[in-house]
Design goal:
Layout: H1 7-12, H2 24-28, H3 34-45, H4 51-67, H5 75-86, H6 93-109, H7 114-138, H8 147-157, H9 160-166, H10 176-186, H11 191-217, E1 223-225, E2 232-237, E3 248-252, E4 258-263, H12 269-285, E5 293-297, E6 301-305, H13 318-334, E7 339-344, H14 352-367, E8 373-378, H15 381-386, E9 393-398, E10 400-403, E11 406-409, E12 414-415, H16 423-429, H17 432-436
Parallel strand pairs: 1-5, 4-8, 4-9, 6-7, 7-8
Antiparallel strand pairs: 2-3, 2-5, 9-12, 10-11
Helix pairs in contact: 3-11, 4-11, 5-7, 5-11, 6-10, 7-8
Length: 437
């Protein structure tokens, strides 16, 4: 079982993508190592599914955030160490000794770089193991969410072979026998320890980087609850990619599982929906959020329909693409899984009458799935009036405040259904009619 999210939702929320402008992944991708980047990518692609695991990871990030640690390792040395310990080991130390001797001879006669790389690889390993030992010794291991990991690394680094390794002077000439012994040991009998050490360093990289972003941005952490609670409650929710964004409060549960959102264009409806989706996804990862406070029940997936486009390849018009998307959402909801589903401007690709009828019918139908949470936005405010009798639908809107003939957007949610109709005023303000005259 895994957290359900499709490519369209990932793209609409701009969650993943190292090189995508403004992606949530890029916001947190401050790691230093390639291994840390791979681990961060894995976290983004595999949200956690149990409240206990989510809360534990959040507590680890909070531990590092409070500790305010710097990454103590040299990235180039880590890369050299990884290449060194990952290379194929020879079956016996005598054979390794012979091959090391041959490499040293060839290094003196030709431009063979293998002996030099072996020495540099061992030197990088010695320095990295020593730095890891010093770093772990400074960490508090008697309590806290990272105590087990710290104790495990202390035990690993207490191995007598690694103690002797740390004592080697990397600036002194390396005896051939010692070089061959560690070349063999680090790639065979100590290979598991070396892999665990590297994995620990990559975890440190991610923990330090993510917690630093949280500290800089003043992000907070959500509290995860079991799925049966069916709760999503947040205070001060904002978009993590917008500095100084205005926060909003929301609460959804079984008895109030549908939000009907109205507001003028540019009032902030789409950004609010994206903020909700991003916060829920990051919360399932145990990551810090652009919120003041958040409590949520673990959900089985997330589904959005915010930027539906036509599909020329399949011959879909914009309207038909919307219909297909709603059908996919209905099929997902019908599975009985606890999902969050968001729809921005249902059926805007057709005429107003059909859009009204379709939005009304779909919203009513979705509202019956009480285990799912739904957010539906629309310009057709008359739909809201027709839904007033539904006791599990809450009506909120993004207001527009007029300053003379200029609209101003507060981005602050209010209860009710908007009465704002500034479309023609904006058209006039832009002087479009005068240009056509």
């Amino acid at each position: 079982m895994s957290f359900n999210i499709d490519k369209q939702t990932l793209d609409e929320l701009n969650l993943t993508g190292k090189f995508k402008s403004g992606s949530v992944y890029a916001l947190f991708n401050k790691v230093r190592t390639s291994g840390g980047e791979r681990l961060l990518d894995h976290m983004f692609r595999h949200p956690l599914e149990e409240a206990t695991a989510i809360n534990h990871r959040s507590s680890v990030f909070q531990y590092f955030q409070q500790a305010d640690l710097n990454f103590p390792f040299d990235v180039q040395q880590i890369s050299q160490m990884r290449e060194y310990v990952d290379s194929t080991a020879n079956p016996g130390v005598i054979r390794v000794l012979a091959q090391t001797f041959v490499k040293r001879v060839l290094a003196g006669l030709t431009r063979d770089e293998r002996y030099k790389k072996s020495v540099q690889g061992l030197q990088a390993t010695i320095v990295t193991v020593s730095k890891c030992y010093a770093f772990v010794e400074k960490l508090q291991s008697d309590k806290g969410p990272y105590a087990d990991k710290i104790l495990a690394m202390k035990e690993l680094l207490s191995d007598k072979r690694l103690q002797k390794l740390r004592e080697i002077d990397i600036y002194a000439d390396m005896p051939l026998k010692k070089l061959a012994y560690y070349e063999h040991a680090l790639k065979s009998s100590l290979q598991r320890e070396m892999n665990e050490l590297l994995q620990f360093i990559f975890e440190l990289d991610v923990n330090i980087a993510v917690s630093a972003v949280a500290r800089q941005k003043k992000f907070r952490y959500a509290t995860a609850l079991p799925p049966e609670r069916n709760l999503f409650a947040v205070k001060g929710l904002a978009h993590p990619g917008i500095d100084g964004a205005i926060g909003n409060d929301l609460r959804m549960d079984t008895n109030s599982n549908v939000i009907f959102l109205t507001g003028a264009n540019m009032a902030g409806k789409s950004t609010l929906m994206k903020s909700i989706g991003i916060s829920l996804y990051l919360a399932h990862m145990g990551f810090p959020l652009a919120v003041n406070e958040m409590t949520f029940s673990v959900r089985a997936g997330l589904y959005s329909s915010i930027n539906v486009a036509d599909n020329i390849g399949l011959g879909y018009s914009h309207f038909y693409a919307e219909v297909v998307r709603v059908k996919q959402a209905a099929e997902a909801a019908a599975t009985g899984k606890r999902l969050l589903l968001m729809f921005d401007e249902l059926f805007k690709g057709t005429n107003v009458k059909d859009a009204y009828d379709g939005t009304l019918a779909i919203t009513k139908a979705f509202a019956e799935y009480r285990d799912c949470l739904f957010i539906v936005s629309t310009h057709i405010i008359e739909v809201g009036e027709a839904l007033r009798s539904q006791d599990n639908i809450q009506f909120v809107y993004m207001p527009t405040v007029m300053e003379g003939v200029k609209p101003k957007y507060t981005y602050q949610l209010q209860q009710g259904i908007t009465e704002d109709r500034q479309g023609m005023m904006i058209i006039r303000n832009e002087g479009i009619l005068e240009l056509m005259d």
